[in-house]
Records
---
Amino acid sequence: MSRPVVKMVELTFEDARKLIEIGAVGLLPTGACEAHGPHLPLSTDVIIAEAAAERAALALHDEGKAALVLPPITYGVTEYAQGFGGTISISDATMRAMVRDVIGGALRAGLRGVVVCNAHLEPENIAALRGAVEDCAAAGARVAFPDVTRKPHALRLGAEFKSGACHAGDYETSLVMAATPFLVRADLASTLPANPISLSEAIRAGKKTFLEAGGVRAYFGDPAAATAAHGDELYRELTDIFATAARAILTASQENR
């Protein structure tokens, strides 16, 4: 049995319309173009967000629920990685407006609601996402933002994630290995010494860049410990987090019909 197509951009407009007409929910991946160590691509956050959203959409399909993965937002507020080649940051106002407009456009296109599936965890970026979702919700939209940096979600994503030393370490390297292994420089990752500095604690202490925080090669955590199998375990958790939010939207929409 062939796997269903859940990425909206891979469908024709007629195929997309059929799913929208039966009440599809949209999953919006959000990431960044940002340095992730010497071993991972600049698109790491986009890869993770889109892979998690696709797995969530497939899980919903298996339950007989319609879901579409929207085209990802590939830029974000990423000031901490400034100075590392290829990093491109946008303002928090632009991020908030862009996400708000994409959600609004998706709802005008007929989607039942939108779940924001974010993998770029810089605090200012998360604040912009939360602001966009609040703007949409205030206007009556069915929208959800399961913030994985907060409880209870954060407790499900492993010891490294909970430590805060999880930028391009075991957590993100494992996730990229499980989704796009050909983009991981695995031989290099296996030689990198662990950097146990907690980025989240450094941010709370007032550090403003990866360099100030102690990430001289733009990674925190233990890339050498990463495996694709661990990545699949993490995706199972992310899939459930995002699919649960989508189910809540679908349930609410049915109750209000």
---
Amino acid sequence: MLPFNNMSGDPSQEFFADGIAEDITTLLSRLPGFFVIARNSTFTYKGRAVDTRQVARELGVRYVLEGSVQKAGQRARVTAQLIEANSGNHIWAEKYDRNVEDIFVVQDEITQGIYAALKPHLLLAEAEFAQRKPPQSLDAWGYTVRALVKWYYITPENFVEVVALARRAISVQPDYGPAHAILSAALGFGSYTAVSDDLMAMGREAAAEARKAVELDGDNPDVLLAAGTAYFFLGQFKKSHALLERAAELNPNNAMACAMFGHAQAILGRPDDGIELIESAMRLSPRDPQTYLFHSMLGFCHFLGDRFDDAIRWCERSSQAKPRYPNSWVYMAAALAEGGRTEEAARALWKARELVPRLSLAIYRRPRAEGTLWPKFIDGLRKAGLPEE
């Protein structure tokens, strides 16, 4: 990350530009799987016109984050852009305009926004880089990041590819926690969407992989997020909640951890808290590739809070963005049924069963749903006409 340029025309504002750059460097250094050059090295480029390819060679990096700060009175504008150094391609760019009544709050807000928005773009860029390499030359991270990006767009159809990539990463490095974590989440999804003839065996393997991932890398918020997601799919909501809460504590700027924690909060009886967390996730990452998931989760939280019209509205937004995501249609069907719109509920359920032909209430009768609001969801699906088996 290069020093940010002070565009204010006021040398006394250098501290503001330097402070923002230092804060972003610190946050990015916490992102698992990425190597971030220390401030002392990158600040040697301060005030110099540099070529990103030269920076890449000298520092041994693939990506360069650069930006500028312009402050006038009580307003500040911060711009940032991520560049693939060798090609010069711009991967991501954003502009932030803020009041600066409290300069330190502004620094935190801008830093968190850049971090949250940057993470999915970095993963996509890394996956594209890994895709260009011969498969036999990939390391565990290369296979895992490709699995992660496939996981961003998970469907019953590409489930097999996510699992295969995660297993390949584990074969390269058996003690690599992130690979076990993404495998656990994918297998949990597979069990949840009935892609196997033996859902119980797939569920048991998902739980075993989640345990293994946490044992190997239990302080990694991304590992906790994936393992918590696996337990969520398996209906072990209290265990899922604990892992997701810890993931959000360790990295409060991880939008998906924040959203999934909100989803779990809702199931444990706190839908309004869940909505607040998911809305926070959407503010953190307004252009996230998985925004359709945030919308679906909001729909589910509103359903659990008996706000069926709001639930339908958010599920419709999710299904429009991602028509082949089953949960949007399932949540919508339950909300429509509870709202008395039975014919529309049946149509939404038909859409869901197009995607998951084996869909039945048996899949949703979770083994550990006691003390949660999950049975309310099952009742809604029953009213929508989902068969028992």
